[in-house]
Specification:
CATH topology of the largest domain: Rossmann fold
Number of domains: 3
Distance between the termini: 45 Å
Oligomer: single chain
Largest sheet: 6 strands, parallel
Structural class: alpha/beta
CATH architecture of the largest domain: 3-Layer(aba) Sandwich
Helix content: 40-55%
Shape: globular
Number of strands: 16
Number of helices: 24
Strand order of the largest sheet: 6-5-4-7-8-9
Radius of gyration: 24 Å
Length: 620
């Protein structure tokens, strides 16, 4: 059991699951062994019905598919489809946020309002939209319509690429990867990978870069910026994390998924006096709303609402026997949740028309009557409280405080309104560099092991770490998102953190908020008059598993940032593709991928990279 997680709460519940005969993701992973070798290497193709075809990695069998596609073509096409799916997921999230902003500005979205007028003004200025003599709602409507054009091909290029340094934009233009429109690049990815279209692996990868950039500097950035407009720009806030945040005497509602439009309304509905009275009538002392995965990140960074855990803990929350309802929307939700819930009293409530789950209760969420639907969902949870089986309720004791909510604006505020203190710390070597650690959990590796050990190795070497998504939750549970964690940092970073009263690991939001990291990197590069690829910065995804992570990793490298992956991508069946992504991309994009499963060795790779970049800038 110990090799499954380093989180004591997770281990506690894994033992409970084993006693009660409840299967989890780790059990299903073991049943899949050995996993398909052709799939792991990326050399199987089912893009037409002449197949499925596969390439023999040992060279004795077929070296071409029926159509003549080689390992290079097949692996590159598979990679491009992963990028397209990941970009579609995050960008569709952005589309939904814009739709809600527009509806709120029209007075047609119940419970929503424009909360950050200052950010709305800034975005309107970027888009050349006048504010004079107009209400914020009028401006928001025009801005939302302008952003909707980002998804097509009307404008010619994505607006937010103008935030990137001029030198970086020149790199994109030279390589032919400047994103033209979000949906356009995703659709073209699917066209190119159809049988008989693009079969040049370099050309396929270049379009993959363009598609990912339409995500990172397009759809994801749209989702982040307009979530701030609608719900408020995050500022540092304290809260609690891990499964110990569940309450034995309260109605527990766990919000899991990625869309803040839903979670914001549930959080509001849970404060309704009528529903609180009903909860007391049913024997509970109150209603306890907790987050899970990236919905958890959205809630904790804006409201300090507890986060119960990250990706691999979603089933474990149900296994506590104390969850009345797990409310889900989109992305990273295991279909197995409904099967696990059948062993307890928990109701799995699906809410999105895009994501139905067998045996779940479906209550479709719509922005036009959002608060009314949210109250209905909370009522279902409250009325389920008496159905608990007390003998099955076991909640781990582990709960740890965190400080989250370091938006770009919050970082600037902590620095006194200017990047100068950060730049000075980098120049003097107090901070050796900045590393973004992001991504999922993966049962191929011990839960949270990669995130925590890589983070600790970096901060003790005076590297400032910024995090999003499940990586950030891992560090929250370990206490690394507290100012007191500066005691674990090197002397330079510790001094900076103590002077600014910030943690050595900054929580910047959900996985879609990696765009915040790009904005900071671009701002630092512009301040120094260099390209992003010249900076002592790096990215890492120690435990990634999703297609979104493939898009993220690609747009981070495409932005000029060296990136280390902790789980092996399905490309090793093509030596040429591996060579391109780990070496050849340096000449075209100024950055490459590395793959290292050992977080301690990954830290060495990153530290060596930061040292080389500092030396090139004349900082050592």
């Amino acid at each position: 059991m110990a090799e499954r997680s380093i989180d004591r709460a997770a281990l506690f519940l894994l033992k409970k699951a084993a006693r009660e005969g409840v299967e989890t993701a780790w059990d299903r992973f073991e049943k899949q062994q050995p996993q398909c070798g052709f799939g792991q290497l990326g050399i199987c193709c089912r893009n037409c019905n002449m197949g499925p075809c596969r390439i023999d990695p040992f060279g004795d069998g077929p070296q071409e598919g029926v159509c003549g596609a080689t390992a290079d073509t097949i692996a590159a096409r598979n990679l491009l489809r992963m990028i397209a799916a990941g970009a579609a997921a995050h960008s569709d999230h952005g589309r939904d946020i814009i739709t809600t902003v527009y509806a709120a500005a029209c007075g047609e979205a119940q419970g929503y309002e424009i909360k950050d007028e200052e950010k709305l003004r800034a975005l309107a200025s970027e888009y050349g939209i006048s504010w004079e003599g107009r209400s914020k709602e009028e401006v928001a409507r025009e801005l939302a319509r302008a952003v909707m054009e980002e998804f097509g091909m009307v404008k010619g290029s994505v607006q937010f690429v103008k935030r990137a340094p001029e030198k970086r934009r020149a790199v994109w233009e030279k390589a032919g990867v400047l994103p033209r429109g979000i949906d356009r690049e995703i659709v073209e990815s699917m066209h190119r990978t159809h049988m008989g279209v693009d079969n040049d692996y370099v050309n396929l990868v270049l379009h993959g870069v363009r598609t990912s950039l339409s995500d990172g500097w397009g759809g994801s950035m749209v989702a982040t910026e307009f979530s701030d407009v609608l719900f408020g720009t995050p500022q540092p806030v304290r809260g609690k994390s891990n499964l110990g945040v569940l309450k034995e005497d309260q109605v527990n509602i766990v919000l899991h998924g990625h869309e803040p439009t839903l979670s914001e309304m549930i959080a509001l509905a849970a404060k309704d006096e009528e529903l609180l009275a009903l909860a007391r009538e049913k024997g509970a002392t109150g209603i306890n709303v907790c987050g899970m995965c990236c919905t958890g990140n959205e809630l904790l960074m804006r409201h300090g609402i507890p986060v119960a855990g990250n990706f691999l803990q979603q089933e474990l929350a149900v296994i506590t026997g104390a969850v009345e309802a797990m409310v889900v929307d989109i992305q990273c939700i295991m279909p197995a949740l409904t099967k696990v819930a059948q062993c307890y009293h928990t109701k799995i409530i699906s809410t999105s028309p895009k994501a139905r789950f067998a045996d779940a209760l479906h209550i479709q969420f719509e922005e036009h009557n959002a608060l009314e639907i949210a109250k209905k969902i909370v009522r279902v949870a409250v009325e389920n409280f008496p159905n608990r089986k007390p003998s099955l309720v076991q909640i781990p004791e582990e709960e740890v405080e965190y400080v989250a909510g370091f938006s770009v604006e919050a970082i600037l505020k902590a620095l006194g309104g200017s990047l100068d203190p950060l730049l000075d710390a980098i120049k003097t070597g107090k901070i050796k560099g900045i590393v973004g650690i992001v991504g999922c959990n993966n049962p191929k590796h011990t839960h949270d092991h990669g995130h925590l050990n890589l983070t600790r190795e970096l901060i003790k070497n005076d590297v400032l770490v910024v995090e999003t998504g499940c990586a950030a939750i891992a560090c929250a549970k370990a206490g690394l998102l507290l100012p007191e964690a500066a005691a674990e940092a090197g002397p330079g970073l510790r001094a900076v953190c103590e002077s600014l009263e910030i943690p050595p690991v900054l929580h910047m939001g959900s996985c879609v908020d990696i765009s915040r990291i790009l904005v900071v990197a671009a701002a630092v590069a512009n301040a120094l008059g260099v390209d992003i690829s010249d900076l002592p910065v790096a990215g890492a995804a120690p435990e990634w598993m999703s297609e979104k992570a493939v898009s993220i990793g690609t747009y981070v490298v495409g932005s000029g940032i060296f990136t280390v992956l902790g789980t092996v991508p399905p490309i090793l069946g093509s030596k040429n593709l591996v060579e391109l992504l780990t070496k050849g991309a340096q000449e075209v994009l100024g950055a490459v991928f590395a793959v290292e499963e050992d977080p301690f060795k990954a830290a060495i790779l990153i530290l060596d990279h930061l040292t080389a970049k500092r030396k090139a800038l004349g900082l050592d």
